[in-house]
């Protein structure tokens, strides 16, 4: 086992040495792995879209760039925004927006439970591709209803960026225990 410290030092230990030196850390890792296993479906059937979307939102703190995309598409409604307008609304160039969406796609595809789907959906889990979107009538994106509902249920993330339960203004863990 290799542990890298914040200053870049690398500590190499056997599993037994690590457990002897860091028993709390090892217990915590084992507990998290056990909990992760408990949240996996018993079958290979895909999880519901709504459940996967909530998992995506709750995995980690939502970066400000992704919150800006959520906000722009939430406020745009069902018609969405063309790509250029979405970039402008979020304060990004089209190249930067491509990077934001790429990062969001990686976030989606790394979410536990996504592997039950036939193929990784990337941002298509959250957004619907539009051949013609306002205001320019060129291609763009619109927010899927499951994401809109999850954002409303969890609290709009552009308020403080942390839709995890138990945070100020957020539901408790019991409010959404199926995640």
Structure description:
This protein is an alpha+beta fold and 179 residues long. A three-stranded antiparallel β-sheet has the order 3-5-4. The chain has a two-stranded antiparallel ribbon with strand order 1-2. The chain is built from seven helices and five strands; from the N terminus they run E-E-H-H-H-H-E-H-H-E-E-H. The protein has two domains: 2-39, no CATH class; 49-176. Helix content is 45%, strand content 12%.
Name a few traits of the molecule.
single chain; 179 residues; alpha+beta; 2 domains; three-stranded antiparallel sheet; two-stranded antiparallel ribbon; 7 helices; 5 strands; 45% helix
Strand content: 5-15%
Strand order of the largest sheet: 3-5-4
What share of the residues lie within helices?
A: 40-55%
List low-pLDDT spans: 164-179
Topology, number of strands:
5
Looking at the structure, what is the overall shape?
elongated
Q: How many structural domains can be distinguished in the coordinates?
A: 2
Largest sheet: 3 strands, antiparallel
């Amino acid at each position: 086992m290799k542990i890298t410290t914040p200053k870049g030092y690398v500590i190499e230990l056997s599993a037994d040495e690590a457990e002897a030196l860091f028993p709390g850390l090892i217990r915590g890792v084992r507990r998290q792995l056990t909990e992760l296993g408990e949240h996996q479906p018993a079958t290979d059937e895909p999880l519901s879209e709504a459940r996967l979307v909530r998992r995506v939102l709750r995995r980690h703190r939502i970066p400000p760039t992704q919150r800006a995309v959520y906000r722009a598409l939430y406020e745009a409604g069902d018609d969405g925004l063309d790509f250029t307008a979405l970039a402008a609304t979020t304060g990004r160039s089209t190249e930067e927006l491509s990077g934001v969406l790429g990062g969001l796609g990686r976030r989606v595809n790394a979410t536990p439970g996504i592997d039950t789907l036939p193929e990784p959906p990337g941002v298509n889990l959250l957004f619907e591709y539009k051949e013609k979107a306002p205001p320019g009538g060129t291609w763009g994106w619109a927010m899927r209803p499951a994401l809109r509902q999850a954002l409303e249920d969890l609290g709009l993330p552009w308020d403080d960026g942390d839709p995890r339960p138990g945070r100020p203004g957020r539901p408790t863990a019991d409010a959404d225990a199926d995640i």
